[in-house]
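To: structure subgroup
Subject: Chain for Friday's discussion

All,

I'm putting the inputs and outputs inline so they're searchable in the archive.
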Amino acid sequence: MAKMDFTMFPLKVLRDPKWLKLRGDLNAQLVYRMLWACEHTDYPGLFRYPLPYLSHDLGNSSEETRQIFGQLANVGLIEFNEITGFVRLVGWYRLKYFPDSLNVLKSRSAPYLDGSLPTDILTSGSASDLIVASYKHARVLPRVTEAQKRHHADYVGHLEMLVRHCADNLHGFESSLLAEFAENGQELQTEYEWLVHTRTGLSREAAESFGLVIGEDPLEALARGYGNPPQGLGNEKKREDEEKKKAYSGTTSSVLSDIGNSGPRASTLKSELALSANGVAP
C-alpha cells in the first residue's frame, strides 16, 4: 500500500460544524491536522501507525492519545478502532480526494478490490465515502460527445461493480454506505434507488431505516404493465367480440336468404359470404 508523502490540510474542514466543536481544544486540533498530513496515512484515508509510537511523537501517554482519538470520534471527524488502533479520517474522499476520472477511480478503488485492506468497519466506512463522493462527481461529468458518454457509463459501471464487491466482502458495508448516503448524499436519490433496485447487496428495508426514500422499481412497474388485464376488462372485451360476431352472422344469414339457391352466381356468392363470416378471406 502506497503511503502519502505530503498532503495539504483541506480548508473545507474549517467550515465543518464538527471541526468547530473543537474550537479552543488545541491538542485535538493538532492531532487531527497531523492525521491529514502524516506520511503514515495511506490513500484510503486510514492511519495505521502504532499508537505507542504516535504517543511518543506527540509527547503524550498512550491513554492521553486514546482520549484525544475518542474526542475526535465523538464529534464525527474520525472513526477509531480500539482493538487495532487504526484510525479512519471521515470524509477523506468527500473533502479532498474524490476521483475526477475513471482512471483515478480505478486507482482509488484498487485497495478495496485486491483484498489488501482489513475487512472491518473502518474499511467499509472508507469505501462508502469513496462511493458517495464518486457518485456526486459522476453527476458533473460532461456527457456531450460520444466519448464523454462512454466515459461516464464506464465510470458509473465501475462504481456499481465496487458496491457489489464491497457488499460481498466487507463487514457492515451496507449500513456504512446507507449512512453515508443519508448524511452526505441525500441529493443522490436516483443513484441509491438504482443500487437498491439492481440488487447490489443493499436492501430496501435497510435503506428506509436510514430515512432514505426508495421508490418502486421501474423495471417491475414496466413488467406489470405487460401482464394480464384486469378480469373485468377482459370479460367486457369478450362480450363485445361475441356481439359483433352475432351481428355479422345475422347479416350474412339474411343476405343468403335473399339470394336464394338459383344459379351458379348465387352459389359462388354464398360461398364467399360463408367464408367471410368465419373470418377466412375468399
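Points worth raising on Friday:
Strands lie at 46-47, 78-80, 87-89.
Residues 1-5, 228-234 have pLDDT under 50 and may be disordered.

D.
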